[in-house]
Amino acid sequence: MDDIDSALVAELQRDARQTNRDLARAVGIAPSTCLERVRLLRQRGVISGYGARVDLPSLGRRVQALITVQIRPLNRAMIDGFHDSVMSLPEVLGVFVLAGGDDFLVHVAVRDVEHLQAFLLDRFSQRREIAGFRSSVIFQHTTRQVVAALPDEPVSPKLSRVGRDRGQESPARRP
Questions:
Q1: CA 12, CA 8: separation in Å to the nearest integer?
Q2: How far apart are CA 74 and CA 156, in angstroms?
Q3: Are 33 and 80 in a shared domain?
Q4: Structural domain harbouring 34
Q5: 108-148 pLDDT tens trace
Q6: CB of 71 within 8 A of CB of 128?
Q7: Which of these ranges, 1-5, 99-103, 149-153, has the smallest mean pLDDT?
Q8: How many C-alpha atoms does 141 have within 13 Å on its Cβ side?
Q9: Which of 81, 86, 50, 51 is nearest to 68 (CA)?
Q10: Which of 104, 114, 92, 113 shows the shortest CA–CA distance to 134?
Q11: 101: closest CA among 79, 132, 73?
């Protein structure tokens, strides 16, 4: 990823519906170059798709919640089965598989708190593999519209000295 690729990705995240000509103009490159670069970004998997952002309340989903879930027994088949089952529920927006005290974080959007309670009682409390769950209602949800690659960070001087103090090559100087 160079500066041009980064600018293309940022522009497409802002507005994926803009024309190739407008995208090229915004980044300062020729339209043919723009077309080829975007094709390569898709081919490399940097751009994985395009989509529309929707307003959840407009779809009748006024209440969002995060549900942490612990399942037992904890094995690959149980994790995969639970993940696939939960992702098939229409209330579920996303599922995170976690390490630590909780095994899953499930993001749901429902009509109201009564529907959240019914969802939890009907879809979670009945499942034998669920050892426990907790829900937290989301008051406000903000996502970053443009996600950029993180810059390479230099190794701190303190870490560089550690390698030299032990007679090793400094990590900062490795290729």
A1: 6
A2: 39
A3: no
A4: 3-43
A5: 999 999 999 999 999 999 899 999 999 999 999 998 889 98
A6: no
A7: 149-153
A8: 15
A9: 86
A10: 104
A11: 132
DSSP three-state, residue 31: helix
Q: What is the CATH number of the domain that holds 133?
A: 3.30.70.920
Supply 99's token pair.
């390490």
Does position 62 have pLDDT exceeding 90, yes or no?
A: yes
Closest CA to 132 of 99, 101, 88: 101
Question: How high does pLDDT run on average in the chain?
Answer: 89
Structure tokens at 113: 């708190």
CA of 103: how far to CAs of 45, 86, 88, 120, in Å?
A: 28, 13, 18, 17
The answer to whether the peptide bond before residue 73 is cis (omega within 30 degrees of 0) is yes
